[in-house]
């Protein structure tokens, strides 16, 4: 008989998925750009032009001489060179942006959501609930923030448990009982405990860099410059290759990256529900809160940013997703409620 899966197993599995996610992001980007360059090479069908990519490799590794026994080996090595030429500056820019995100991402998220520091007297209920749950979780007490909206939602952010913050909408604070509020905070505390907040912060503030780089290429001057036939043909080859690379970056930004994130996000939400229920020893309180959130979870300040919306306990864009609900980063609330009530 198989041993039951515990909350600690969920946490361990979550850490593994996080590692896979971080590995898949650069690998999938490199693979997409390489395939795009190979397609471009096949369209251009000019070995002399593709030797430019081979020269890129030689410039990076002096003395390296790949086997070029046939035209397709030239295309393959040339495509690898053009891929490196494309992704290296992207990785450098992304690394710098990720560093900025790591240092200031939590403040950026709170500002974007229009959250302000909770007031000690007016928001005494919030402080009490957060302190209660932090004690039960054995974690430092996060900073409390309020989003002045009548809807019901919440999210957590920060680099670590010591620097974590929890933001709650005004409607959530006013419409939930103390037990339900502690249930929502326990879910966010679970994200803090499982280190999901750091990953969310980096992805939310850093994912758009790929789309930005693709946009730069898309708006580059792709016109063929005047000159002789040879120059015009060479410029045409550059245009074709840039279009292929730009398409790969757009596919990565709009399809592959969201798919990778989708693959782990739903399980992380389930794991946070389970961990949150363990923290307060009351899964039905969180289930009851989620049932109320299902009626009104929209947050106007993030209605134009799906990445930011994914940080909330309930997707603020759920009512606008339509068929896209199937690929939402959040599991259906009814499914989460059923799991909690079955505990």
Estimate the global geometry from the Cα principal axes: elongated
The appropriate CATH architecture of the largest domain is: 2-Layer Sandwich
Q: What number is the mean pLDDT?
A: 82
* Beta-strand content bin: under 5%
Tally of helical segments: 13
Q: Which tags fit this structure?
A:
single chain, 343 residues, mainly alpha, Zincin-like, 4 strands, elongated
Topology of this protein?
Blueprint: H1 7-44, H2 47-60, H3 71-112, E1 115-117, H4 124-137, E2 143-147, E3 154-157, E4 165-169, H5 170-175, H6 178-193, H7 196-206, H8 208-218, H9 229-280, H10 283-293, H11 306-309, H12 318-321, H13 333-341
Parallel strand pairs: 2-4
Antiparallel strand pairs: 1-2, 3-4
What report would you give on this structure?
The protein has helices at residues 7-44, 47-60, 71-112, 124-137, 170-175, 178-193, 196-206, 208-218, 229-280, 283-293, 306-309, 318-321, 333-341; strands spanning 115-117, 143-147, 154-157, 165-169. Helix 4 (124-137) packs across helix 6 (178-193). It is mainly alpha-helical. The longest helix has 52 residues, at 229-280. Mean pLDDT is 82; it is low at 221-228. It has a 4-stranded mixed β-sheet, sandwiched between helices. The chain folds into 2 domains: 7-103 and 211-262, no CATH class; 110-203 and 273-341, Zincin-like. The chain is 68% helix and 5% strand.
């Amino acid at each position: 008989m198989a041993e039951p899966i515990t909350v600690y197993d969920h946490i361990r599995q979550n850490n593994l998925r996080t590692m896979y996610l971080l590995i898949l992001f650069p690998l999938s980007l490199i693979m997409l750009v390489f395939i795009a360059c190979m397609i471009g090479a096949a369209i251009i069908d000019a070995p002399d032009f593709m030797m430019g990519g081979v020269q890129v490799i030689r410039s990076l590794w002096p003395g390296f001489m790949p086997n070029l026994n046939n035209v397709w080996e030239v295309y393959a090595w040339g495509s690898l060179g053009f891929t490196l030429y494309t992704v290296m500056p992207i990785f450098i820019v992304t690394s710098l942006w990720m560093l900025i995100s790591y240092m200031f991402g939590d403040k950026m998220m709170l500002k974007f959501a229009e959250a302000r520091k909770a007031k000690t007297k007016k928001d005494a209920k919030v402080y009490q609930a957060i302190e209660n749950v932090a004690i039960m979780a054995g974690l430092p007490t996060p900073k409390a923030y309020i989003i002045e909206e009548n809807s019901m939602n919440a999210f957590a952010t920060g680099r670590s448990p010591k620097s974590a913050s929890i933001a709650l909408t005004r409607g959530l604070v006013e419409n939930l009982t103390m037990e339900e509020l502690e249930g929502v905070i326990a879910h966010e505390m679970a994200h803090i405990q499982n280190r999901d907040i750091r990953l969310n912060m980096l992805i939310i503030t850093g994912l758009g860099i790929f789309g930005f780089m693709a946009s730069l290429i898309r708006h580059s001057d792709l016109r063929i410059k005047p000159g002789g036939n040879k120059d015009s043909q060479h410029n045409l080859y550059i245009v074709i290759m840039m279009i292929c690379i730009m398409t790969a970056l757009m596919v990565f930004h709009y399809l592959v990256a969201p798919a990778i994130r989708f693959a782990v996000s739903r399980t992380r939400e389930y794991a946070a529900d389970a961990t949150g229920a363990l923290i307060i020893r009351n899964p039905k309180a969180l289930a009851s809160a989620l049932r109320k959130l299902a009626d009104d979870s929209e947050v106007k300040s993030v209605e134009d940013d799906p990445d930011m919306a994914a940080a909330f306990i309930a997707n603020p864009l759920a009512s606008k997703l339509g068929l896209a609900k199937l690929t939402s980063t959040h599991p259906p609330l009814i499914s989460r409620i059923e799991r909690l009530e079955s505990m």
